[in-house]
From TrEMBL:
Keywords: Methyltransferase, Transferase. It comes from the Bacteria. Pfam families: Methyltransf_11. This is Methyltransferase domain-containing protein. The lineage of its organism: Bacteria, Pseudomonadati, Pseudomonadota, Betaproteobacteria, Neisseriales. The keyword Ribosomal protein does not apply. InterPro entries: Methyltransf_11, SAM-dependent_MTases_sf. One of its GO terms (biological process) is methylation. It comes from Deefgea piscis. The keyword Oxidoreductase does not apply.
Length: 244
């Protein structure tokens, strides 16, 4: 069992963790409200109810963390192929053992045009620099997958990125007073340092590769025979012209 999700859930109860949780919850609520279908799944971290504003009739929280409705490995999902319409991954890639394996499982389980929503810590930010401190603990010793790398992985798995944005521009400190005084950075961050937020959010859709239409052999044979007849008629007409 991966205990890092439970440790991160405990961290979410700290002042800095609550700031992250509330910021991401607002993004998930905006993102899922207009996604339609029948089945939606959130992997890990039930402390952030990513599907709260979604209206699908079947919504489930799954994973290894305490409090999830369905206990399972995020790298081996117990769902049929192409059976889900929406999967939410709040920091799952940050703390799972094999992020790419998780994405492959999501690709397998999602229906064509199914949506994938991901949040993760941005290594190219002040929050990423916090990882350099010796003896770092959760969340600073997570995977911190870079956004460009994540987009490459998604592209290889036939996902198209629809949206990406950054959140949490305040410095990664636990003092509530400092967090409150730096509130203005959340409003100014997108303008002054667009890719510098401590958390990134990605919305992607599963696409189907284009198919090449192969014509039946009889059609090709007919076209070939027709071309041969036309050439023979031209030759006969040319011989008649020379005899005149």
């Amino acid at each position: 069992m991966n205990a890092e999700f439970d440790h991160f859930a405990t961290w979410l109860a700290t002042p800095l963790g609550r700031y992250v949780a509330m910021s991401e919850l607002a993004w998930f609520e905006r993102s899922v409200v207009d996604i339609f279908g029948y089945k939606a799944v959130q992997l890990e971290l039930p402390q952030i109810d990513c599907l709260r504003s979604n209206r699908m009739p079947w919504r489930l929280q799954a994973g290894e963390a305490a409090g999830t409705q369905l206990k399972c490995s995020v790298q081996a999902l117990p769902f049929d192929e192409q059976s889900l319409d929406l999967i939410a991954l709040p920091h799952v890639l940050d703390f799972c053992q094999d992020p790419h394996a998780v994405l492959r499982e999501c690709q397998r389980a999602l229906r064509p045009e199914g949506r994938l929503l991901i949040t993760g810590f941005n290594p190219w930010s002040l929050w990423g620099l916090r990882r350099l401190k010796p003896n770092s603990e959760i969340p600073w010793k997570g995977n911190f997958v870079a956004l460009p790398k994540l987009k490459d992985w998604l592209s290889v798995l036939d996902f198209q990125t629809l949206q990406d944005e950054h959140l949490c521009y305040r410095p990664p400190v636990q003092r509530p007073g400092w967090l409150e005084k730096s509130r203005f950075l959340d409003q100014a961050g997108d303008r002054l340092w667009p890719a510098g937020g401590g958390v990134y959010c990605v919305a992607a859709v599963k696409r189907i590769r284009g198919m090449h239409l192969i014509e039946p052999q009889w059609r090709s044979a007919t076209a070939t025979a027709g071309s041969a007849m036309a050439i023979e008629k031209l030759r006969q007409q040319a011989r008649k012209d020379r005899c005149k």
